[in-house]
Design brief:
It is a single chain. The protein is α+β, with helices and mostly antiparallel strands. It has two domains: 157 residues, Aminopeptidase (3-Layer(aba) Sandwich); 150 residues. The chain contains nine helices and twelve strands. The strands form three sheets. The chain has a five-stranded mixed β-sheet with strand order 1-2-3-4-5, with helices on both faces. It has a four-stranded antiparallel β-sheet with strand order 6-8-11-12. Helix 1 links the parallel strand 4 and strand 5. It comes from Streptomyces alfalfae.
């Protein structure tokens, strides 16, 4: 650990390797190493990994302000070298802060750093011209700040590398991005919800019927309001998306969130919507709604991630991924859902709920007829009313005698 850095607490320190789903234009799989202290993110390292696992390109290393100069960056980079023990690593060009940090860092695998080896050994994975440009920038910053930068380990440090890099640039073998095909398979998308307390208590109560709790969750969300998110090939990856959002939230919520994973299929008769495929997930790029068949639901509380509730829908339920904007909604979507994604009427093929006492409709109608007939009969047999009521009797009114002088009236 570089001098002057305080140590990290051993209790509650953990590392998490997960997917990194950001469109950077690089057709390699995105991976992220996250350092956690308790439930606080101390820092993260974002990289791209070649499909064969033998080359890694560092994209960004970031440490949160409260954890700087405590060895977090070194821990993350050491972890990367351990996770990919035989891969070439391209650390790229460094910023001002990165230059100072690298000067104090001790690379555990300098022999796998492409900056330290001739391009003949790694040129099939990285563009030799781009690597030479990054090395020139790093050397310039070292000179500007008067740093050594481990120059004794760098291949041809400070020399002009244009010709050699140009000679090996033709060896570079770009790969075509191999993405997930969403057709004919289950897809899993996550949402993070803050439910009303009563709903939260009900859906996480394991003594209640899972099917009823799942139906309540879908009704709460809306059948036409499934999330616009990355749709994964596995349920585990979808739960990781929800947990990732939980970790990188801006503020600590007052109540635990519910991590909800929808399992869907695209209707086989519908054309595939436009999408961007990643190795393990797809991002539907079209702004319109997407009709899906909801096959299952899984959910867990952020406060109890070890307890997962599941329920399957047999047969699958008609649902839809919400349109990006209300004006993007298709005519079929508007006929079925309102702008909030809730159903306007029962689904086609499903009987509408019968009104109360529907099985006694004939009896009630017959009783009403009898009552109306009896009322009419009484009206016919009643004597006619006299139009001029008798005058009121004119009996003398009794008045109280006046009070005796000197005596008051009794008040009761």
């Amino acid at each position: 650990m570089p001098g002057g850095e305080a140590g990290l607490p051993e209790e509650g320190l953990s590392l998490w390797l997960t997917d990194w789903k950001v469109p950077t234009g690089i057709p390699w799989e995105g991976r992220r190493v996250v350092a956690l202290v308790g439930q606080a993110v101390a820092g993260h390292l974002d990289v791209h990994v070649h499909p064969d696992g033998q080359a890694v390109e560092v994209w960004m290393l970031d440490v949160q302000p409260g954890f700087r100069r405590r060895g977090v960056a070194s821990l993350l980079m050491d972890t990367l070298c351990a996770v990919y023990p035989t891969a070439w690593i391209n650390h790229g060009a460094r910023t001002r802060e990165g230059t100072w940090w690298w000067n104090g860092y001790r690379d555990p695998a300098p022999q796998r750093n492409v900056h330290n080896r001739p391009p003949a050994e790694w040129a099939v994975y990285f563009d030799a011209v781009a690597v030479a440009s990054d090395k020139a920038q790093n050397a310039h910053l070292n000179a500007f700040y008067g740093l050594d930068g481990h120059r004794q380990e760098v291949y041809r440090y400070g020399e002009r590398l244009e010709q050699e890099a140009d000679d090996y640039a033709r060896h570079y073998r770009p790969v075509r991005e191999a993405g997930l095909d969403p057709a004919g398979r289950q897809l899993h998308g996550a949402a993070r919800l803050f439910l009303p307390p009563a709903v939260h208590a009900y859906v996480h109560d394991r003594t209640q019927d899972p099917s009823g709790r799942a139906a309540a969750l879908v009704e709460h969300v809306g059948h036409g309001n499934l999330p616009r998110t990355y749709w994964n090939g596995t349920r585990h990856a979808a739960f990781e998306d929800a947990y990732h959002e939980e970790l990188f939230q801006d503020a600590v919520p007052a109540q635990p969130a519910t991590h909800l994973v929808f399992t869907v299929r695209l209707p086989p008769a519908d054309p595939l919507p436009a999408f961007h495929a990643l190795p393990g997930s797809v991002d539907f790029t079209a702004g319109a709604d997407i009709a899906v068949e909801l096959a299952a639901l899984a959910w867990r509380s952020a406060g109890q991630p070890a307890v997962t509730h599941t329920a399957a829908f047999t047969p699958p339920v008609s649902a839809a991924v919400a349109p990006r904007w209300p004006q993007d909604a298709s005519a079929a979507y508007r006929a079925r859902y309102d702008e909030a994604g809730f159903r306007l009427s029962p689904e086609a093929g499903q009987p509408a709920a019968e009104p109360a006492y529907a099985d006694r409709a004939e009896d009630i109608s017959a009783m009403a007829d009898r009552l109306m007939a009896a009322l009419a009969e009484r009206s016919r047999s009643a004597p006619p009313l006299d139009a001029s009521p008798p005058p009121p009797s004119r009996q003398p009114q009794q008045t109280s005698p006046p009070p005796t002088p000197g005596q008051g009236q009794s008040m009761r």
